[in-house]
Amino acid sequence: MSNTESEQEFFSRADKFIFLANEQCQNAISGKVSSSLLYAAARFSAYDMATKSDSASEMQKDKLEAIEFFCGRFREMLIENLDDYIANYDQYVSQSRDA
Q1: What's the mean pLDDT in 51-67?
Q2: Residue 75 CA to chain centroid, in angstroms?
């Protein structure tokens, strides 16, 4: 999240992706939807990196740093969300089962 972006904007955008993933779960199991979402995130992250690079050789030079950045951020966010689900398991899981 950039310094100029509000948390509300960040989470609103994320919620739109989650809503779409939940819609996809009506026709596919959540594991398959999750895999597609991960692929989309990886593909878009590669695109994002490419648009910020001046050449393929610059992109190659920065590739390992980008991998470390994106994997590190994903790890942080996954840990945060796993901890949230652990702390709120009964509430979150009962809501998803009732939906």
Answers
A1: 97
A2: 10
